[in-house]
Design goal:
It contains nine helices and 13 strands. With 284 residues, the protein is α/β, with parallel strands linked by helices. The strands form two sheets. An eight-stranded parallel β-sheet has the order 7-6-5-8-9-12-10-11. A five-stranded mixed β-sheet has the order 2-3-4-1-13. α1 crosses α9. The longest helix has 20 residues. About 6% of the residues have low confidence.
């Protein structure tokens, strides 16, 4: 028997815990941390049979279990929020999102905190269209920013969702968007496991990746084949959008790690849960 408490987080508790994190700080720490440094803080493994992550935090001396898919989704939300903070110009901001899985309440909270000017999100779920050509409604978005709400519109097509958007997030399909649909100066965040189309890539002035260490794991992806290394997201967080030379430049942020179990993020998430008294004791 382990002398340390074992705690299980539900999906709802993990979403509550992520609200206690600053997405930009967590992403910057995770992306700039030396390789292997997380082993000094925690140990993580994947329980394939239960589809859960098991994390032992050396600092708090606690063991945690949480749904693996939830950890991936919330890490992706943090990455998207951090990328938006780095490049979207201040002001009244509209966002277009392809894929409803990226627009749960926790993801909206993180995105709205990163973008105080965010006023409107247009969503198209290409995987679950409604009978009238629209999309299924997502979860409640109440309480996104203080007492305010970010307006959420369900669109009939991907093109409609992207119309005039300052920020575009691709969460489920990187190939359903045409380059001509993007407004000038759009920040395009690709959180799928696919390359964007050649047509879309022609519109890009600057390419940014989250973790260049992951390029070797995706030899077929465009960034892995480029002669010049792309810019690293972690280097730009906290210093402003220094990459853009012109406001109308289109930036593509390719998130290679969006589908991974990020150990430092899971560690921070569990510590946030600990502070908030979340989680139930469990056995082995």
């Amino acid at each position: 028997m382990s002398p340390f408490p074992r705690l299980r987080l539900t999906t709802g508790e993990a979403e509550s815990a992520v609200r206690g994190l600053d997405a930009v700080d967590v992403v910057r720490e995770a992306l700039t941390m030396p390789s292997g440094a997380t082993g000094e803080e925690s140990v993580m493994r994947f329980d394939d049979a239960a589809d859960e992550l098991l994390l032992y935090d050396r600092v708090t001396r606690q063991e945690w279990r949480l749904p693996a898919s939830t950890a991936v989704r919330l890490w992706r939300a943090c990455l998207c929020a951090a990328a938006a903070r780095a490049f979207v110009a201040p002001g009244v901001i509209t966002a277009g999102v392809i894929g409803a899985d990226a627009m749960d309440n926790a993801s909206l909270v993180l995105l709205s905190r990163a973008l105080p000017g965010l006023s409107h999100v247009a969503l198209y779920d290409d995987e679950a269209p409604g009978p009238d050509g629209g999309t299924r409604p997502p979860r409640s978005v109440r309480g996104v920013r203080g007492g305010d709400e970010v307006a959420l519109a369900l669109m009939r097509s991907a093109r409609d969702a992207l119309l005039g958007a300052d920020l575009v997030v691709l969460a489920s399909n990187a190939t359903c968007v045409a380059g001509e649909w993007l407004a000038r100066g759009t920040v395009l965040v690709n959180a799928t496991a696919q390359d964007v189309t050649d047509d879309l890539h022609k519109e890009v002035a600057h390419l940014v990746v989250d973790d260049p260490r992951l390029l070797s794991l995706a030899p077929g992806r465009r960034a892995a084949r480029m002669a010049e290394p792309p810019t690293r997201l972690g280097q730009l967080l906290g210093v402003g959008a220094v990459l853009r030379r012109h406001r109308d430049d289109t930036v593509l942020v390719d998130l290679y790690g969006a589908g991974l179990h990020q150990q430092w993020f899971v560690t921070r998430l569990c510590r946030s849960a600990h502070v908030r008294g979340l989680g139930r004791r469990c056995g082995r």
